[in-house]
Amino acid sequence: MISLVEKEGDTIFSYSLKIRTLYLASCNLTKFPESLKYLDTIQRLDLSNNQIEGAIPSWLWEKPLVRLNLSHNMFTTLERSPTFQMTDLDSLDLSFNRIQGSIPIPSTPSYLVLLDYSNNDFSTMEPNFGRYLRNAIYINLSKNKLSGHVPLSFCSLNQLKLMDLSYNNFSGPIPSCLMERVDLSILKLRGNKLHGVLPENIREGCKLQTIDFNENQIEGALPRSLAKCQDLEVLDVGSNHIVDSFPSWMGTLPKLQILVLRSNKLYGTIRDLRRGYQHFTSLQIVDLASNHFSGDLHSEWFENFISMMNNSNDEGQILEHHPTAAMARLYQDTVTITFKDAVLSITKILRAFKVIDLSNNSFEGSIPSSIGRLASLHGLNMSHNNFTGEIPSQLGKLTRLESMDLSCNHLSEEIPQEFTSLTSLSWLNLSYNNLTGRIPQGNQFLSFPSSSFEGNAGLCGIQLSKECDPHPDSTTPSTLAPEHNALWQDRLDAIILFLCAGLGFGVGFALAIIFGPFYHIEEWLCKHL
């Protein structure tokens, strides 16, 4: 058993100790333990999730470390040189600190397999940085302040499976050599200033599972050679300047689960689906919002979304990847969507979460009733289009639906009573259409604000503080022209006289006095005569 002695706030280890592995994670440390300087046998050191400030000491790089984890602290610099000499190091995690300056590199080619410098303030990187990482499998430099072109030296990393350079200030074109590799699984360049067109020469045997180029300045068309990436699960090229028609040719990718094309310049109709083939069968999130799509939506397109029809046993499962079978580190995909009128960045994508966003386009025609078959759908946004006709009653079968927005279309007719069966519905927007009739009062409809229904002159209900006619099918004297009111009054007087004569003047007169003010007799007579 190892005994620790505290001296002036530091932990003192005996010189005679032969410690190889030391885990001091989440110990509320505020200073780097100086006594570690005397542990010459240390190979695995974990000081993560503490509150250690200041510089990472230079003597640390002289230890025979194989794995070093200093993540989730408050380090700001590296003492002396940005280089280190640990040729035996295979895992280095400095993520979630405040380290500034140049990216630290090995002084000689190392055995590093995992390198995580994400969530820091690094601002510069040597162009030949990749040449020092000949065995790297996992490189994460996301959320720093790196700029310039993406180093071509990364293309020489033959074993690289994951590269995340997202949320930096990289500019220039996307190196074609990265997408032309057959062994890379995860490629994320999200949130940079990259421009130009996407590389076209993707080779047979492509192993890419995630491609995320969201929030850049990419132009041109989507490369048709992406169809060679049969393992592709996530494609996110939203918020760029891509000009193309709908990529129906991607429908044959058997594992594609997330397709984000929002905020581009895509145009045309969603057609060209080959008969006899199933398309987009694994999709769980499809976001085509804010483009220039037009035309009708065909029912057969939604009939292919098999994963949205099944209530499978995937509750709690997260979309994640193991870069290699031997590496314990997990990598989780992220996606940004609009849900319940809010922009959400989802860092853990549940496989059970199903969303369709077709808003801000020029779709027209009726809303396909086949959407009602997507039993596991959680969110549907078809607002700001040119849809016409009724809201399909089949949507009332979507018991998992939590968010639906059909606003700013040209839908007509009443809100179907089937909507009251949406027992999980927590957000609804039907504003600014041509809806008429009574707002359903069942289930949670009473909890929706008036803004959910505004802009529909023909709607009435408690939510709008606009009373509905209690008998919409009846025609009362108050709604008739004056000459008709006079005619009905003459008929009523004659009937009252008949009652007085037939039942006795006293009884008949009493009935007329009691029931006359309530219009029940008059209303019944108006309806049945």
Automatic annotation (TrEMBL):
<keyword id="KW-0472">Membrane</keyword>
<dbReference type="Pfam" id="PF00560">
    <property type="entry name" value="LRR_1"/>
</dbReference>
<keyword id="KW-0732">Signal</keyword>
<keyword id="KW-1003">Cell membrane</keyword>
<keyword id="KW-0325">Glycoprotein</keyword>
<dbReference type="InterPro" id="IPR032675">
    <property type="entry name" value="LRR_dom_sf"/>
</dbReference>
<keyword id="KW-1133">Transmembrane helix</keyword>
<dbReference type="GO" id="GO:0005886">
    <property type="term" value="C:plasma membrane"/>
</dbReference>
<keyword id="KW-0677">Repeat</keyword>
<keyword id="KW-0433">Leucine-rich repeat</keyword>
<comment type="similarity">
    <text>Belongs to the RLP family.</text>
</comment>
<keyword id="KW-0812">Transmembrane</keyword>
<feature type="transmembrane region" description="Helical">
    <location>
        <begin position="495"/>
        <end position="519"/>
    </location>
</feature>
<dbReference type="InterPro" id="IPR001611">
    <property type="entry name" value="Leu-rich_rpt"/>
</dbReference>
<dbReference type="InterPro" id="IPR046956">
    <property type="entry name" value="RLP23-like"/>
</dbReference>
<protein>
    <recommendedName>
        <fullName>Leucine-rich repeat-containing N-terminal plant-type domain-containing protein</fullName>
    </recommendedName>
</protein>
<dbReference type="InterPro" id="IPR003591">
    <property type="entry name" value="Leu-rich_rpt_typical-subtyp"/>
</dbReference>
<dbReference type="Pfam" id="PF13855">
    <property type="entry name" value="LRR_8"/>
</dbReference>
